[in-house]
Amino acid sequence: MGGVEKKDGIVLNNFNSTANLTSNSGFQSTLTLGSKEVINEKAYDPFEHRNVEHPTSTMGSLAHLLKSSLGSGVLAMPAAFKNAGLVMGVIGNIFIGFICTHCVYVLVKTSQEVCVEAKKPSMGFAETCGAAFEFGPKKLRPWSNFVRIFVDYALTCTYLAALCVYVVFIAENFKQVLDVYAPNDNLSVQAYCALTLVPLVLMSQIRNLKWLVPFSAIANVFLVICFGITLYYIFKDLPVKSEATMVASVSKWPLFISTVVFAMEGIGVVMPIENEMAKPQHFLGCPGVLNVAMTVVVTLYGLVGLFGYMTFGDTVHGSVTLNLPKDDVLAQAAKILMALAILFTYSLQLYVPMEMIWRQLKDKITVRYHNITQIAIRTAAVVGSVILAAAIPNLELVINLCGAIFLSTLGLLTPAIVDTVHNWDRGLGFFYWKLFKNIFIAMISLLAFFAGTFIAIQDMVNKISADPVLEKHLNTTRS
Questions:
Q1: What is the pLDDT of residue 466?
Q2: Strand pairing partners for 231?
Q3: Cβ distance 355 to 372 under 8 Å?
Q4: Backbone angles phi, psi at 27, to 5 degrees
Q5: CB-count burial class (<10 Å; 0-12, 13-18, 19+) for 447
Q6: C-alpha pair distances (Å), 210 with each of 201, 346, 406
Q7: Burial level of 1, CB count in 10 A (0-12/13-18/19+)?
Q8: Is residue 471 part of a domain?
Q9: Calpha distance 302→280 (Å, rounded)
Q10: Is residue 336 part of a domain?
Q11: pLDDT at residue 35, as a whole number
């Protein structure tokens, strides 16, 4: 290497030792990867080098993606429409859905392209972000490790926070049903959060995506039934509530954005799902797993959000199932089915933070203790989510905060930055349209982050002030 070698009239300068020459000199080609010139080397295909122990089918991957996006957030859509109004809710739902889909697309596309440059079969979310900087502009390459670590920890915090939403959701739905049959023994939401501990610990021990497919399929069936029952009550004698506005105050729009982003965004599970597909070529493209899943998601979210707000108006709760009749058996069935669907989804959401945590720890622990360590970490994660959920048992507040702080940053801002860095030296399109597009997405993300967080905290303060029990406690403390 570094010298000059002559063979059959071909001169090779600074030839890469990893390249493979074809024996037939009549088939010569040159391609450039980064700044390295490679001659007569077949382009690296990451799909050919993937060795997944338990690959997931295309339909199984579609079920996982649908389940990761069609969680408790879909039932928060009427509350989201309350913060936007009927007209702006419909427009905003389609617009935010398109933006979320596009951000997932550019992230996966970037991952597949940097896998070729890095000659790796697959990459996770954080690895993709770090590699985009590593193979991007020279001045940004020293930041690659920081970006990877930051995204890793941010993603872990995001999904651990989302698990708290799941616990509150399960607890509130079970509480509404069981309070009807045990009116003299009404337990608090915190008590129901504690009761979810045992089943969640058991569910959390399922570690393989392939083994989670049946649970995702069952959860999707429960979701469809629950949506059907919910839509029945929504469309039954559908009047437009007098307080249902066409266009809500602009000051509430950031809450709408943060709630919709929380509901739709499954950015953290996208890369694990794509990486474990038996045929990853089917993830992008048309129709593709991504496009089919997001079309279903946006349509269902729009229907539930629009008609749910039209029916219940400003009285709508953080989960529209909580607005269904308490004494009606059919409504109670919907609440139980939705709670069980979220319960079966818990392990899928836990998969993302566990992947990061275990990657950091597995090389530091003796192999014989790997299994017991996994059990301990997963149990600790469940216990932590239950404790935090019990501390803040307000579903709408937790959803707004999670969407504004975490998912707007990771789901919108991060893909926009990664796409810009990755294409900086490769071309930003005609009149730099990719740059302007990503700046626009970043602005939406920052609006949701700052304004959404501020308004959510302000609402929290107002609810505390309006709570007579808590206000009495605070007055006692002051005196």
A1: 59
A2: none
A3: no
A4: -115, 85
A5: middle
A6: 19, 15, 27
A7: exposed
A8: no
A9: 29
A10: yes
A11: 45
4, β-bridge pairs: 13
CB 65 within 8 A of CB 296: no
The span from the CA of 288 to the CA of 274, in Å, is: 12
- Looking at residue 26, what is its pLDDT? 39
Collect the ranges in the chain with pLDDT lower than 70. 1-42, 70-72, 237, 239-243, 393-396, 459-479
pLDDT at 4: 45
Specify the residue for token string 């105050």: 249
Rounded Cα distance, 453 and 258, in Å: 9
Here the tokens at position 194 are 């504690």
State the first-to-last Cα distance of the chain, in angstroms, to the nearest integer: 81
- Same domain? 81 vs 23: no
Cβ-Cβ contacts under 8 Å for 75 (sequence gap 6 or more) = 230, 304, 319, 320, 321, 338
In angstroms, the CA 107 to CA 271 distance is 9
Same domain, yes or no: 20 and 98: no
Q: Per residue in 117-159, pLDDT tens?
A: 888 888 888 888 999 999 989 999 999 999 998 888 888 888 7
Q: Can you give the residue range of the structural domain that contains 17?
A: 4-39
CATH number at residue 177: 1.20.1740.10
Q: What is the pLDDT of residue 55?
A: 82
Peptide bond into 287 cis (omega under 30): yes
Judgement on whether residues 25 and 119 belong to the same structural domain of the protein = no
Token pair belonging to 399: 């959803």
Domains in the chain, number? 2
C-alpha angle 293-448-66 in degrees, rounded to nearest 5: 15
Which tokens sit at 149? 């670590």
* Rounded alpha-carbon distances, angstroms, from residue 158 to 162, 163, 194, 422: 6, 9, 22, 24
What are the structure tokens assigned to 245, written together? Answer: 């506005």
Is 218 a member of any domain?
yes
The pLDDT, as a whole number, for residue 242 is 60
Query: What's the pLDDT at 189?
Result: 81
Q: Phi and psi dihedrals of 36, rounded to 5?
A: -100, 130
